[in-house]
């Protein structure tokens, strides 16, 4: 078999040599759309994260298997792959612990004013202090807070478990309308936004979640409440969020944006209350351990394909 990885750079520094056991393995750091067909010449299997595998690509190549190095398959023409009889295998569940951990690392950074106090010490202010502590930037506990979760999949459940361990009062909103057998109250979106001190999004982007949180919804939130998005960009109206941060004291933690990489004219780059905004570049999924699990599961996907599973 010939296996081609089109965007290995998105996997970082994990070892990909295991794929060579199946035959010839060729890896490219990044691939432009104009290069895709030529690089897949003679390939039986493609590994891709963000490189599009379109009808044109499938018609011009002889692919027998499409491996997606992610959970989402939106970069694949799934309907045409099915028509052509080309299996598409993605990877699910590999990043749950990583995303849950990053969710709380980010939320707690705001609640505990970690950046302020780290700067305070490193700028030499503590050296010049007359007392042993500094209380200029208030710290807030998770215990007793109302913690709402939008999307109670595996990641949402993991976040709920940790929030509960901190002593938060957890509730959830299901964009799909499903009620689950869980020890958390199911509420409607408006009720959650009005009641919760923290709202954390862990839902996919689809027709029910696109633009779910806009100007009206942000206006329902308590002043000073935190909204986080570890689902997909496009669920929150970023321009409306920028206004809410500056005008209503809303705090925000984001790991995903509608346009990635971030566009230079994104309204969030111009917020005045920068201390109330934390943005990470879509890294929550990418702990070293999660990326190792991802590669191992892709290897298994190829093994299953070879064995007719």
CATH class term of the largest domain: Alpha Beta
Number of strands: 12
- Mean pLDDT, all residues: 97
Helix content range:
25-40%
**What class would the helix/strand composition place it in?**
alpha/beta
Low-confidence stretches: none
Distance between the first and last residues' Cα: 17 Å
* Shape descriptor: globular
Query: How many domains, in number, for the residues?
Result: 2
Reading the helices and strands in chain order gives EEHEHEHEHHEHEEHEHEHEEH
Q: Rg from C-alpha positions? A: 22 Å
Largest sheet: spatial strand order = 8-7-6-9-10-11-12
Q: Tell me which CATH architecture of the largest domain applies here.
A: 3-Layer(aba) Sandwich
What CATH calls the topology of the largest domain is Rossmann fold
Question: Strand-residue fraction?
Answer: 5-15%
Keywords: NAD, Oxidoreductase
InterPro entries: D-iso_2-hydroxyacid_DH_PdxB, D-isomer_2_OHA_DH_cat_dom, D-isomer_DH_CS, D-isomer_DH_NAD-bd, NAD(P)-bd_dom_sf
Pfam families: 2-Hacid_dh, 2-Hacid_dh_C
Family: Belongs to the D-isomer specific 2-hydroxyacid dehydrogenase family.
What does this structure look like?
Keywords: NAD, Oxidoreductase. By secondary structure, the chain is of the alpha/beta class. It has 2 domains: 2-93 and 288-307, NAD(P)-binding Rossmann-like Domain (Rossmann fold), CATH 3.40.50; 95-279, NAD(P)-binding Rossmann-like Domain (Rossmann fold). It contains 10 helices and 12 strands. The strands form 2 sheets. It has a 7-stranded parallel sheet, with helices on both faces. The protein has a 5-stranded parallel sheet with strand order 2-1-3-4-5.
């Amino acid at each position: 078999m010939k296996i081609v990885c089109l965007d290995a750079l998105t996997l970082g520094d994990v070892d990909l040599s295991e794929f060579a056991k199946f035959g010839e393995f060729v890896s490219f750091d990044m691939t432009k759309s104009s290069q895709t067909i030529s690089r897949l010449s003679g390939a039986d299997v493609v590994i891709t994260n963000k490189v599009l595998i379109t009808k044109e690509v499938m018609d011009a190549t002889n692919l027998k298997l499409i491996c997606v190095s992610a959970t989402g398959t939106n970069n694949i023409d799934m309907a045409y792959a099915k028509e052509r009889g080309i299996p598409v295998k993605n990877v699910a569940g590999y990043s749950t612990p990583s995303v849950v951990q990053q969710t709380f690392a980010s939320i707690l950074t705001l609640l505990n004013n970690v950046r302020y106090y780290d700067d305070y010490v490193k700028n030499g202010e503590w050296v010049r202090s007359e007392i042993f502590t500094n209380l200029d930037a208030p710290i807030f506990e998770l215990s007793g807070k109302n913690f709402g979760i939008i999307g109670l999949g595996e990641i949402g459940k993991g976040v709920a478990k940790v929030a509960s361990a901190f002593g938060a009062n957890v509730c959830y909103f299901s964009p799909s309308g499903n009620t689950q057998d869980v020890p958390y109250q199911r509420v409607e979106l408006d009720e959650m936004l009005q009641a919760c001190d923290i709202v954390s999004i862990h839902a996919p982007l689809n027709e029910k979640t696109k633009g779910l949180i806009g100007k009206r919804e942000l206006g329902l939130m308590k002043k000073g409440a935190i909204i986080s998005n570890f689902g997909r960009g496009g669920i929150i109206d970023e321009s409306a969020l920028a206004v809410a941060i500056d005008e209503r004291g809303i705090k925000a933690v984001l790991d995903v944006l509608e346009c990635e990489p971030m566009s230079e004219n994104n309204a969030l780059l111009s917020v005045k209350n920068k201390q109330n905004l934390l943005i990470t570049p879509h890294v929550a999924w990418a702990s070293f351990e999660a990326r190792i699990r991802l590669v191992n599961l892709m290897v298994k996907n190829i093994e299953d394909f070879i064995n007719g599973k």
